[in-house]
Design the sequence.
């Protein structure tokens, strides 16, 4: 960015590539393992805290075995077994006079849930919206076309003033900390590095005013969300 390019697209590409390269060095993405298995109904905050303590002692035990770490393992197993036993015993006793609820509780004990209730895959959602757009286009194919204005006379030519670094600093200070996956860096980090990034952003703005907006700024991401994901209905 010390010698910026004249082309706005190349200037935007250099800005994003340099910013991503710095993030990869100083703030790389960590690898996170996430399980889709839901927690048990009896798994409360006490079990969660005991599990965190057990994981910490487990790592300590691997480095230096001790009796404290070994006893904590047994405590966590005993706590989990007691929680499960007390929960299901109280649930069965509560519904002893209601056969329907009783058999439903027994079914949960014998066949615990191991996966999410959401049965629609990403391909199902994509197919649903693709078919919906196709039907809309077919129903409006015979409609009259919109009038296109190819040329419009203007008495006054538009002129833009160059963006200054001070204006970029002021706008970044007022901007909310919102971002998406298309951004090369989170907004809060860009705001903290305003003194360094403001000249580059001002150069991109001035190049866009002179030669047009880069196609990179015309991209958008739309995430489809269901109104009620818990219902087994069409998306």
Sequence:
């Amino acid at each position: 960015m010390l010698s910026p390019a004249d082309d706005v697209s190349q200037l935007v590409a250099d800005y994003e590539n340099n910013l991503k390269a710095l993030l990869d060095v100083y703030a790389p993405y960590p690898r996170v393992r996430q399980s889709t298995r839901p927690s048990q109904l009896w798994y409360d905050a006490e079990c969660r805290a005991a599990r965190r303590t057990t994981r910490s002692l487990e790592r300590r035990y691997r480095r230096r075995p001790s009796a404290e770490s070994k006893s904590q393992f047994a405590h966590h197993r005993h706590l989990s077994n007691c929680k499960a036993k007390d929960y299901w015993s109280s649930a069965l006793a509560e519904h002893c006079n209601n056969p329907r609820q009783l058999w439903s509780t027994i079914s949960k004990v014998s066949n615990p849930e191991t996966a999410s209730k959401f049965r629609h895959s990403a391909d199902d959602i994509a197919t649903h919206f693709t078919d919906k757009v196709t039907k809309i286009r077919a129903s409006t194919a015979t409609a009259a076309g919109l009038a296109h204005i190819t040329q419009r006379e203007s008495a006054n030519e538009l002129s833009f003033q160059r963006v200054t670094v001070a204006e970029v600093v002021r706008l970044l200070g007022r901007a909310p900390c919102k971002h998406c996956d298309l951004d090369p860096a989170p907004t809060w980090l860009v705001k903290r590095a305003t003194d360094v990034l403001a000249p580059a952003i001002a150069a991109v703005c001035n190049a866009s005013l002179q030669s047009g907006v880069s196609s990179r700024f015309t991209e958008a991401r739309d995430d489809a969300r269901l109104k009620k994901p818990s219902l087994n209905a069409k998306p």
Summary: The longest helix spans residues 67-94.
